[in-house]
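Lay summary. Proteins are chains of building blocks that fold into shapes, and those shapes determine what they do. In this project we predict the shape from the chain. Here is one chain we studied, written as its sequence of building blocks.
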Amino acid sequence: MNKLALKTRLIVVIAALCIVCILSVAFISTSKSKTALLTMATNQLESSSIMMKSQIERYLNTSELFTLRLSKDRLIEGLFIAYEGAFYGGGFSTDKDEKIITPTYLANEKLYGKRTRELAKDFGFSNIMLASVNGQIIMSSVSDPKYNFLGRSLTKGVLKGTNLESCFNKAKAQKDDKVFFSDFQNYKTASSVYSFLCKKAYAEFDHEDEGIYKGDELGVVIAQLSNETLAKITGQRTGMGETGQTYLIGPDYKLRSDFALQRDKFNMNNSLKVIFLLKLKLWKIP
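And here is the predicted shape, written in a compact code that computers can read:
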């Protein structure tokens, strides 16, 4: 009986040790699995982040190159001549915002509109605008009947003090082929967020009837970056799971792209609106 009891106790002890070993192995395996999964998820997110960063940099670098090409395009030179003629022919002033959609402007739009929109699309821009040497936006490839930007004076009107005015001034003052970036901003006139690239354009030919000669400043080409293109890049869901997402932020820690999830709440408009309203208040200070 004693031998039987001892044998039973040994079996129980061995069984207990086996259970402990099994639980230990299971715990270690689970921990290692969790660590492996976490490492794999982290590596996947890092890989996705690097890929998206590369795509965004490529888009911005390409856009800069295209803006430089636009500033030297013969079509752009012709557009400056045609739309400046429509502006001054309409008797408009360069020291205030103007509603410049006249029959002459519409005639130019009928002649050049489709080509300029195709040019913007081919170069990956949402819009191409032209600003005269005085800072008046005399052309928009996108129809702008509400005058969100068209006809506005960057130096004397409601857009004075914006990132776009700063971009225009830098481009106008520059002597070489440098392209300037207008950071994302919520524009009061359009109630939306935009970013731009600016490059000064020169005449390649003489236009004696307009008093413009080769080498003269024509104005500044303004290329609007595509929020949709940036959203497609940052909104990629591969490897993100149900809750993961990527987005752009600026040096002010404000959004430069919308969230892929909860976009109605976390978007550029809401993020940058606070800054714009603050600037509006500052401008009103005597």
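What the prediction tells us: The beta strands are 125-131, 137-140, 180-187, 192-202, 217-225.
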